[in-house]
Write a structure and sequence with these properties.
Elements lengths: L18 H14 L8 H4 L6 H12 L10 H14 L3 H6 L6 H17 L6 H6 L7 H5 L11 H6 L3 H19 L25 E3 L3 H14 L7 E2 L13 E2 L13 E4 L16 H7 L4 H4 L12 E2 L6 E2 L2 H10 L3 E4 L2 E5 L5 E3 L10
Parallel strand pairs: 4-5
Antiparallel strand pairs: 1-4, 2-3, 5-6, 7-8, 8-9
Helix pairs in contact: 10-11
The protein binds a DNA duplex (21 and 21 nucleotides) through α3, α6 and α7.
Length: 364
DNA sequence: AAATGCGACAACCGCATTATC
DNA sequence: CGATAATGCGGTTGTCGCATT
């Protein structure tokens, strides 16, 4: 039983849009708006296009005030910070970058930023297609993985792990490697994850006291997927940039930071931006990492990878694991207080975040 | 000069969610 | 309140152009 198609694929044109089609669509929407019905729109203006295709074309290309290319360092900064924090929620990330579309950001991440941060070239798509007989997540391949595992059926289970989660683990570990190199790890003063603040107002996004937050949540996911019977350690290839330690053993099964008696928490900050700079807390290291200012000197990635504590609600209650758990927590935990102007997340220290800040402005 | 590899971007596909009847 | 339609979203694929062999 297949899903009913949204349009008649036999009569609908596919592929790149012509300037004439663009002009028709833009002229109509400029004059009449979308009319609230994308499905009917192409028929109204005589376009042989699927309504979804029209919508996508409008949102990603024709809509006013769209910026293409030339991401600024600040934008990269925001993308990386948010990706580490929330994963591939491209629409949410896009909402923090006026004029950018989720598609643009997604493409930019996949083609540039990911390589910049993970430090390895992605195999070409052709190569990936050629290797389809032995499916393996890209990020795992990029990590040089696939050769050794003590978890038995690891190749199969690893293949099931989302690449987003693995990438975030990699980013997490790279940053932790940096922190170790800077001596943060040895001082029992865990570094903070980036504190993101939207560029336009005083509302902040995420930071995590005692660090390690949401990316660590992916470790929980990885742990569960690699071995449902928790408590074990896993041989796992160390991701990009760590190739020289590719046989390192990572102890994912130590109930993470709990062993250290550290309850990681999510907190949000309402600290305002200062003088055009980002109020990113300890994100300087991330910034330097992004722009390779300290990589060469780091002598980095020695001393092992610190434990990765799980993420908890501010009350120490629900442990936040994978993306889904984060969503669930965001939606359900009692720090999430409805207000008349939209949802508001109550944060540690009395700060708060209006969730409507994440509303996309597509129709403006 | 032709073939191949690769990066970048646009567009498509299908599932999830939301709105409407 | 359930069914259906519309929309939103993220992952994936197609295509083009440049670089390299």
């Amino acid at each position: 039983m297949g899903r009913a198609p949204c349009c008649d694929k036999a009569t609908v044109k596919k592929g790149p849009w012509s300037p004439e089609e663009d002009a028709k669509l833009k002229a109509y929407i400029d004059e009449n708006g979308t009319g609230g019905n994308w499905i009917a729109l192409p028929q109204k203006i005589g376009l042989k296009r699927c309504g979804k295709s029209c919508r996508l074309r409008w949102l990603n290309y024709l809509r006013p005030n769209i910026k293409h290319g030339d991401f600024t360092e600040e934008e990269e900064h925001i993308i990386c910070s948010l990706y580490i924090s929330i994963g591939s929620r491209w629409s949410i990330i896009a909402a923090q970058l006026p004029g950018r579309t989720d598609n643009d950001i997604k493409n930019y991440w996949n083609t540039k930023l990911k390589k910049k941060l993970l430090g390895k070239r992605a195999p070409s798509r052709r190569l990936q297609r050629a290797n389809q007989d032995a499916p393996m997540p890209y990020s795992y391949l990029a990590a040089g993985g696939g050769s050794a595992s003590s978890s038995g059926n690891a190749s199969g289970t690893t293949a099931a792990l989302s690449s987003s989660a693995l990438e975030r683990i990699q980013l997490h570990m790279r940053l932790q490697g940096l922190y170790s190199a800077f001596g943060c790890g040895a001082s029992n003063a865990p570094p903070q994850w980036p504190k993101l603040e939207p560029p336009t107002d005083a509302v902040a996004m995420t930071t995590v006291s005692h660090g390690h937050s949401l990316a660590a949540a992916d470790v929980v996911e990885a742990e569960q997927q690699l071995n449902p019977s928790a408590g074990a350690s896993y041989d796992m290839p160390v991701p990009g940039g760590f190739e020289e330690r590719s046989a390192s053993k990572l102890g994912f099964g130590s109930a993470a930071g709990e062993a250290a008696g550290v309850a990681s928490t999510v907190e949000m900050s309402s600290a305002s931006m200062v003088g055009g700079g980002f109020g990113y807390g300890h994100v300087d290291e991330l910034y330097d990492f992004l722009y390779s200012k300290q990589l060469a000197a780091a002598g980095a990635f020695q001393g092992g990878v610190p434990p990765l504590p799980e993420l908890q609600c501010p009350d120490g209650g629900a442990v936040v694991g994978a993306d889904e758990k984060f969503s669930t927590w965001m939606a359900s935990c009692d720090h999430y207080v409805p207000t008349t102007g939209g949802q508001q997340l109550q944060l540690q220290g009395g700060n708060s975040m209006n969730l409507q800040d994440f509303v996309l402005g597509y129709d403006q």
